[in-house]
Amino acid sequence: MKIVTVHHYDAFSTIPNMGNPAGVVVEGDQYSEIEMQAIAKQVGFNETAFAQKSDKADLRIRYFTPGHEMDLCGHATMATIYALKTKGLLEDKSRLTIETKAGILQIEIKEQKGKIHITMQHAAPQFKAFNGSKTKLAQSIGLTEEAIHPELPIVYGSTGIWTLIVPIKNLSYFEKMTPQMQIFRISLTKCQKHPSILFA
User: Fold this and answer.
1) Catalytic residues, which ones?
2) Which domains are present in the chain?
């Protein structure tokens, strides 16, 4: 049995357990894809990232949820770069590239007043029209079609991860939302692989 070291980081916060949690395995080359998926399932975070060697960039990062691999994850990228930097595994590099399934992305690291600031370039944005049923989409979030803004488009957008962007008329509808996840998954995944949803 392998002993796996998974570092827990809370991205976007300096307060423990108040940020976006991610697991980071800095020695990701030691594990097969099946093992990485099993590790992510056991860890249970939305994403666990595995740092690996790359012949295309300075390093490669693979991202796994408990159920499947993701092309990209922003907060897990921040956590991975922070882990590698603070453990002295990036030497003195302030600019580097990472290989992801969303492409080769640029990373910039700055140290200011004793703090590490990491900037990540996303993949070029892409958009695709949503051609599904507005009625079924509204039902999947516990609302009626009336809640969806009639003059703004419903679109899939991606800078590495496909997200369905749904324009809602006003904030009062947000209080009424009761996502019906099974209906939501069926209506949403017909068009894109593992999409998420964003209400605007």
Assistant:
1) 47
2) 7-120 (3.10.310.10), 126-199 (3.10.310.10)
